[in-house]
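Notebook p. 47: complex prediction with iron/sulfur cluster.
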Amino acid sequence: MHASPVAPSMSAERSGSLPGEQRVVNDFSIQVGTVNGSGSQTANNVLMRSIFQMGVPVSGKNLFPSNIAGLPTWFTIRASKQGYIGRKKEIDFLVAMNPETAREDVMNLAPGTAAVYDAPLNLNELRDDIHFYPVPFDKLVAPVCPEAKLRKLVRNMIYDGVVAHLLGIDLEEMRKALYKQFGEKKKKAAELNWGAVLAGREYAEKNLVKTDPYWVEPMDKTAGKLILDGNTAAALGCVFAGVTVLTWYPITPSSSLAEALISYLGRFRHDEETKKATYAVVQAEDELASIGMAIGAGWAGARSMTCTSGPGISLMSEFIGLAYFAEIPVVVVDVQRVGPSTGLPTRTMQGDILSNAVLSHGDTHHPVLFPSSPEECFTMAQDAFDLAEQFQTPVFLNMDLDLGMNNWMSDPFPYPEKPLVRGKVLDAAALEKLGGFARYKDVDGDAIPYRTLPGTNHPAAAYFTRGTGHNERAGYSEREDDWIHNMDRLNRKFENMRTQAPGPDVHYMEGARVGLVCCGTSRYAVRESRDQLSRERGMNPSWLRLRAYPFSKELEEFIDRHERVYVVDQNRDAQLLMLMRMEMTPERIAKLRSVRYYGGLPLDARTVTDEIVRQEGL
Amino acid sequence: MSTAPAAPKKTNRIGLEVLPYRGGKTTLCAGCGHNSITERLIEAYYEMGVEPWRVAKMSGIGCSSKTPAYFLSQSHGFNAVHGRAPAVATGALLGNHTLQCVVISGDGDTASIGIGQFMHMLRRNVPLTYIIENNGVYGLTKGQFSATADVGSKLKTGIVNEMHPIDCCLMGIELGATLVARSFSGDKRQLSAILKAAIAHNGLSVIDVISPCVTFNDHVGSTKSYAWMKDHEEPLHEVDFVPGFSEIEVEFEEGESRVVQLHDGSRVLLHKLEHDYDPTNRFHAVEVLHEATRRQEVLTGIIYLDNKRANFTETLDMVDVPLATLPMERVRPTKQVLEQIIEEFR
Ligand SMILES: Cc1ncc(C[n+]2csc(CCOP(=O)(O)OP(=O)(O)O)c2C)c(N)n1
Ligand code: SF4
Ligand SMILES: [Mg+2]
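Predicted complex, structure tokens below:
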């Protein structure tokens, strides 16, 4: 028996009681339990979109197994008039479609939850404090879907109709959402599925009496917004960053980034006249090869990248050290999943913060960018390429499964106004003027040397790239002074990134004694927890969201201005906090507290709040 | 002041002296086979009149992998990580497909740690010259067996190899390299001709060059020693190379030689020795290699040649100029495109 990954929680500020209670409008979560490969994804996206189209802020989280078909999967939709789009721990409305998990799913619910279920499962016998809505899905699907083969897929659309009726979702919006989901080319399929929605709705209208308090009502909070996943957004960022080489090896949860990128490159990056590609994509044989190729391409002057997840990062370690030391630009997108080892490949974690920052042997450190939204995936993908070429070094774009694979509301992306930063590259004309160059010499005092590209037609262009000790002229050297001189320059170069990488998002609160620090997708839970702490505990903490490593001085300032600072991590070992400790004074370190969650689900506000309340002794 | 005019310096067809084709002074052991291969490379590039700035020299790690520092001082070089030069070279060619790429590797670099990358490079037919300086041992880590060591070959310490060797030529033929050759560092004439053919070839050339390690594997009992090669080298044919730019008429007797025309108009002449050999017959190529192994002979020459298959960068259908040089206008789509995409998510 598979248990729902969502632990039961009674701690919520919810009041569950049967009929007569107050209406709860645009502030609840729906969880749908299905079997993966059953087409439930479409039904769930249509449901989520319908609510979004009614102007209500939503988020969707797909909790899926590492499997192609047949295992349980859950989809959580949260509607929040306040705009909280992090995961909500508590479930308010359950749709129990998977016979294997339905009983346990129902047993885990808090009293007062609503539950739509497949009638033959007789779940209503389990408890009497739930608003039960039995629906005979098989009976309803037969007449609307004559082709028996397709019934398994169409059946799920019925719950959309039932839920639309129970929650008061505008049917016209649902129709629009459904036709959008199927697209122009699949009109027939859309019609078939729409029939199922209507059948569900008609059944609910005639047979179900609403007793739960949850309602969707129109708002105007989503006008102009988009719904998309972070991987797609990051892929678009790479397209507009002018990526020219992508080398990759498939791994969840980064594959869909590569696949989206390949599709956009195919659509928008062919020469108008010749139709030839202004890019190259190679599916490599493993991550050793994908990073090796990306580094080779970066060395040759391409805007090159690879994307992967933790296991791939581990394999790339040696090569990243080479790129750091030989000063070769390359972008590595890490869509993090749960490790160590194969871990929970389809669950989320901020598991590679430390490994991104210091990957490889010897003294190394690398800039890491922490996008938290599709919009930042788009802009920071561009920042990553610019930083890589400006500083001639590997740059990590540190995403996670929650951000990459789940659907998010987003503002439209701004068209990049800034030209591409291509860094210090000397061409033949420049070499002619200078009479030569020294590859690793700090000419400008910013620790960034000049480079030339292979294929530059000038006798002084060539230099020898190596991972072995070298002097300023790139000559082999084992001399102590050459080594130290070079390592110190690399360090100065890294220091200079502090002011060039995206700065933090800081919110000081009046009279706050406590501050919260996080990065990436922890943002949503932390923001909501902040409000919970103010509302429920009168704390009013400030908060700071880091957007890049190396950290800028705003972080130190933030710590200085608070008595205690809670650093929120989605990993067991407090990786973000550890990274902060690596460069902080003992006084600042003494102020740091750790809030950690590492169960594989997107972080929720209640978990953060409960832990801070505990540590604060409130 | 002397009035006698200085003797004109010798130059190649593009007017360069040999100097830019040379590199730094070798730091390898005197007598190391790798040094001879470096000499042949210098000659080949000089005589072919290759513009040094077009060449990218790549390598992994090992004594052999150090050698790119010893030739073509005016070409970019990249001494990467152990066994991974194929990936780096492939990537460099993605960034700039107009580069003339040469990879120098060792038998440890290729057949052990790098075997995976080697095999996938073969499948792709990446357009480059891949030279394996094969001494049967890991020179740089002081003489342990490599995966090309023959069964029965003995280390100085007395350890005998019992494992089946990996034959990089067989693998090349099997997996998609389009020019596969084996040679010997001591065979000046043959190696020169093969290197030139590889430089001219439009596709992946794999050249396995037996290159004795005088320090760790040149003793009695070694099957990669100078002495062993003297007794066991068995040339398939005599190889001549006639470059495309040459105006020399080649003369040969019908039935005594084969001529294979390469992409750039160059011709490879294979003069018959004992038997006629057709290097375009893949099955036969595999057969003669197995036969030679059975007889404890080291077969040398151009074992396989396919001058028709498209190479990897051609199949990617990239724009003609190097991707690395594309200006922003050609790689960042317009605002209208972004708006169109954004509409799809509303
Ligand atoms: C990841 C890694 N493992 C091990 C080594 C140590 N190492 C350096 S060279 C070498 C073997 C080289 O043998 P080969 O490629 O045959 O070159 P040769 O020195 O014989 O020319 C090894 C094992 C290394 N540099 N990197
Ligand atoms: S140890 Fe062997 S392979 Fe290395 S340089 Fe000396 S002779 Fe050559
Ligand atoms: Mg060797």
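Notes: The two ends of chain B are 84 Å apart (CA to CA). The longest helix of chain B spans residues 33-48.
Next step: compare against the earlier run before touching the bench.
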